[in-house]
User: Fold NAD(P)H-flavin reductase from Hydrocarboniphaga daqingensis.
Amino acid sequence: MLARFFQRSRSEHVLEIAPSGAILKTNTKTTILQAALDQAVAFPHNCRVGGCGSCKCKLLSGRVREMTDKSYVLSTDELKQGYILACQSVPLTDVTVEVDIAARSAHPVIHTSGVITALDKMTHDILRVQCRLKDPARYTAGQFAELYVSNSDTGTGGRQSRNYSFAGAPGIDSPVGTVEFFIRHVPGGAFTDWLFKSAKLGDEIEGHGPYGDFWLRPSSAPIVAIAGGSGLAPVIAMLEQARAERITRDVTLFFGARSQRDLYCLSRIEKLANQWMARFQFVPVLSDEPENSGWTGLRGFIPQHLVRMVGPRIGEHHAYLCGPPPMIDACRMVLSESGIASSNTHFDKFLDRSHVATA
Ligand SMILES: Cc1cc2nc3c(=O)[nH]c(=O)nc-3n(C[C@H](O)[C@H](O)[C@H](O)COP(=O)(O)OP(=O)(O)OC[C@H]3O[C@@H](n4cnc5c(N)ncnc54)[C@H](O)[C@@H]3O)c2cc1C
Ligand code: FES
Assistant:
């Protein structure tokens, strides 16, 4: 029946997504994830480079070509059951995959555009980008949007996009009309080169979202939050939302940066700490601060200080981490050795295309 779905050439195929029943056109050059997103299906995903496993789905029928080795990301059980990574698989035939989209998206995904209303330099390489949206959006603090890279037609009908986490709390009731992001310049990067070198107030950015399952789970457990660089965005959004909801959980917030010039949002964090309804400990850690700078805070890397700063009851905490992949991997090891279950550790790795080779 699917074969008769549309008239097509040999490189065109039909992609069926169960159990939603979505039936889409695709081709041998487009990943399953890209085909779904291009046709407004909110397929769960995160890194897009085969590194996080968020887009895993079960291949029910058909054949795919896989661009990277998925055995690093999927469990032995998942591999046996025929799971694939949608962001790394292109169809060779008509395919049917299974993924429970409804169960994994808290808010409807919308495609919209926004006008840049602020471009504030937070550090020498991080910008706060504020956009006024054409259509108001709902998201959960911690989630991200996909913003299109301008003039980025890939030649297969798709456009390139990049993920950016919302840096502000979405509020309690109504959808938001303005969103903000903290974006770090990646030299040579398509989106951030444009943003840092050419973007100006009034420019329009298109995007879609929200996506991601990095959000504060309901619990009374104390929180250890760990942010590196622009990874502060979803962490501060999450904590500001928790404060708005008058949550009373102790928090230790670590902020890793190279030197004092890389620290930002300090007054916003101070305000958060002052208004927090339980204990709030803020721990900036600098890895490359000159010895004679007068910095009296902690030096080195966050994992070295985690256990001492959180204290002997670290194992009772729930952990939320966001930032560069090496920082997250090193911290997760310490958290796991300290007794925090992996089910209580949530993280968002800011993977980019340079991680494709290592994913
Ligand atoms: C869930 C999620 C949320 C994120 N949130 C944020 C956020 O809030 N703030 C933020 O700053 N970042 C965030 N990121 C990272 C962001 O999505 C981009 O990856 C980053 O900004 C780089 O985009 P770019 O277009 O400038 O660089 P790209 O064009 O993607 O290039 C990135 C790097 O890869 C190199 N490169 C390009 N092509 C290749 C290739 N084919 N092979 C190998 N290397 C290559 C480039 O030279 C560059 O060094 C997030 C990532 C994820 C996964
Ligand atoms: S989105 Fe496919 S592995 Fe991360």
